[in-house]
Amino acid sequence: AGGVFVIEGEAGIGKSRLVKEIMDQASALGIVTYLGLGDVVEKENLYHAWQSIFRQLLDVDEFASTARDRPLKKIVRLLSNPEILLQ
């Protein structure tokens, strides 16, 4: 089935190295992985860590401007700014 791992900790303790190792082992087993990252500057944006995951799942290039990507970019933009949904 599926699952989610949340890895958090102080800077410099090896989180990135651990994540890379887990993703490498998963890839070797044919398991698809997605990576979302937190950012202290974006801590007020509830969906910030999920934006990159949605981009990967929806195959959206953050910098693309093709007509095919516009609806998907709008979804990601809405998820990154939930206040828009409340208007």
SSE inventory with pairings:
Layout: H1 15-28, H2 48-58, H3 70-80, H4 83-86
Helix pairs in contact: 2-3
Roughly how much helix do the residues carry, as a percent range? 40-55%
Shape: globular
Give the strand tally.
Answer: 0
For the report, how would you describe the main beta sheet?
Answer: none
Span between N and C termini? 36 Å
Structural class: mainly alpha
Low-confidence stretches: none
How many separate helices? 4
Instruction: Tell me what portion of residues adopts beta-strand conformation.
Output: under 5%
Radius of gyration: 15 Å
Q: Mean pLDDT, rounded to whole units?
A: 78
H/E element sequence: HHHH
State the gist of this model.
By secondary structure, the protein is mainly alpha-helical. It has helices at 15-28, 48-58, 70-80, 83-86.
Describe the structure.
The chain has 87 residues and is mostly helical. It contains 4 helices and no strands. It is globular. The termini are far apart.
